[in-house]
């Protein structure tokens, strides 16, 4: 716990202003882009174009998670400003926020793995990429994030007069919660995405000189690299901030200025990660478009969905 003379009032005031400046355009842009993405990819499913089905399902699932995060932002801005008198409303908003964040992380991981396997073992994995099995995979993602959100319900313990998304209980910052969150919520997905992205780039580089559309594939390589960078920039600061705050709340960091800086860093990192819901639409729409042209052309048949999806 912070000593009585260690005030976070200035940090909270500054963060409140920055949240308004970031969250309002993020809400507007994210709402429009993700609704358009859901509508666009739903068109492929309605027209029963099987070669686009699996990719479309993954992308719709991602857009739904991002849309859920966008819709949670107004609650985050309003409920974090004053003490809350409806704990259930606060819990619901916090739950939706973290479910959407980690739902996006897991969806990116599965899409990256799916893309790599489709490039490396196109015939072996073709039977695993049917729309029904992709739907089941998305269902598993939803079950995982809902089950992982259980600790949210004890974020504030039995305290009264707290601010939503603030004043988390000491039990929330225990090693039993923080370490699994860091490992399974970020480090493991980062390893999967990094491995699959590097392997995919290596495969494309190996095709240099053996294909007539190298310019197209070079653009695909750039898109994969940019997408990986966006993921790291969006989520690495957040999980670094969570770890530092864990050290603060468990008494490893005691200096007041350090605590204030860590609190500011964590809250600013969360603001930055929220904008990922807008960047997702741009980055991965072009990944799908680029790889359909660059990879599907090498397949003997377009009867199956062999497109490379999200980085």
UniProtKB/TrEMBL annotation:
Keyword Membrane annotated: yes
Which keywords belong to this entry?
G-protein coupled receptor, Glycoprotein, Membrane, Receptor, Transducer, Transmembrane, Transmembrane helix
What are the G-protein coupled receptors family 1 profile domain coordinates in residue numbering? 33-284
Which InterPro entries does this UniProt record tie to the protein?
Answer: GPCR_Rhodpsn, GPCR_Rhodpsn_7TM
Alphabetical list of Pfam families matching this protein: 7tm_1 (PF00001)
Signal peptide as annotated in the record: none
Q: Where are the transmembrane segments?
A: 20-45, 57-75, 95-113, 134-157, 177-198, 219-244
UniProt subcellular location: Membrane
How does this protein sit in the membrane? Answer: Multi-pass membrane protein
Source taxon at top rank:
Eukaryota
Q: Does the keyword Membrane apply?
A: yes
Q: Which family does it belong to?
A: Belongs to the G-protein coupled receptor 1 family.
Question: What is the official name of this protein in its record?
Answer: G-protein coupled receptor 55
Whose protein is this, by species? Answer: Echinops telfairi
Q: What is the lineage of its organism?
A: Eukaryota, Metazoa, Chordata, Craniata, Vertebrata
């Amino acid at each position: 716990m912070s000593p009585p003379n260690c005030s976070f009032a200035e940090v909270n005031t500054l963060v409140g202003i920055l949240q308004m400046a970031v969250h309002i355009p993020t809400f507007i842009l994210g709402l429009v882009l993700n609704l358009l993405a859901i509508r666009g990819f739903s068109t492929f499913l309605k027209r029963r174009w099987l070669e686009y089905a699996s990719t479309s399902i993954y992308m719709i699932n991602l857009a739904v998670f991002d849309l859920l995060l966008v819709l949670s932002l107004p609650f985050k801005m309003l409920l974090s400003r004053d003490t809350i008198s409806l704990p259930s409303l606060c819990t619901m908003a916090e739950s939706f926020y973290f479910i959407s964040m980690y739902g996006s992380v897991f969806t990116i991981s599965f899409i990256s793995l799916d893309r790599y396997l489709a490039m490396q073992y196109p015939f072996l994995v073709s039977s695993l990429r049917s729309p029904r099995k992709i739907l089941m995979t998305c269902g598993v993602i939803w079950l995982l994030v809902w089950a992982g959100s259980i600790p949210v319900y004890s974020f504030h313990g039995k305290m009264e007069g707290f601010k939503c998304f603030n004043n988390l209980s000491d039990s929330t910052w225990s090693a039993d919660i923080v370490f699994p969150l860091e490992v399974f919520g970020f480090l493991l997905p980062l390893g999967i995405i990094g491995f699959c992205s590097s392997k995919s780039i290596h495969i494309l580089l190996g095709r240099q000189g053996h294909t007539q559309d190298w310019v197209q594939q070079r653009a695909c390589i750039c898109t994969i690299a940019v997408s990986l960078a966006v993921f790291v920039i969006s989520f690495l600061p957040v999980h670094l901030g969570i770890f530092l705050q864990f050290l603060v709340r468990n008494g490893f960091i005691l200096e007041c200025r350090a605590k204030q800086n860590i609190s500011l860093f964590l809250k600013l990192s969360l603001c930055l990660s929220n904008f990922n819901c807008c960047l997702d639409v741009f980055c991965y729409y072009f990944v799908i478009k680029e790889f359909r042209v660059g990879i599907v052309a090498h397949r003997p048949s377009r009867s199956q969905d062999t497109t490379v999806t999200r980085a």
